[in-house]
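The record is given unchanged here:
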Amino acid sequence: MSRENDVSALLQQYAAETGVRSVQKVEQDFVEVAQQVTAETITHGLSEAILSDQTPPFGEMVGQSFERGDTQQRTGVLRELLDGAGPAAAQPLVDNGVLSSTPSNDEPAIFVDPAMVAQLQPSLVEQMADEAMQEDPSVIERMSSLYAEDPELGKTLGGVTLSVALGKMAEKR
């Protein structure tokens, strides 16, 4: 049996929603699939899962992911949210010293300080994610792409989201 067939069979298990799986098994399956399919397929599955009524709201998911991530992963999540939410969302973080801002050509440049990111409360990231989604709904696709590029970061989304994403990937195949 080829690896492609193995992945297809694995994804079909999620499409059929057969059985209860441990979070560790779902995470392992997600990483295995991520190594065998295109980033586009992963991005699509994650986007669909994020929009699903079977998963927590977007902001909550991102806040939990942020909390579970390491400093580098947290910094990446924060940068992507800031790109989606725009400068207004960054202001509370600048005011709290998490970010520094240097105005240039009427557009402030935002610098993310990894040392401060480690101290950032996930609830603030959750609020930023909700604001980013309101400002620019394409942030869901961009965040999904970020998670697809780094399966270890993707695992921070949690078992329910990953399980739904794997099922969505199976539907697309």
Observations:
- The beta strands are 99-104, 107-112.
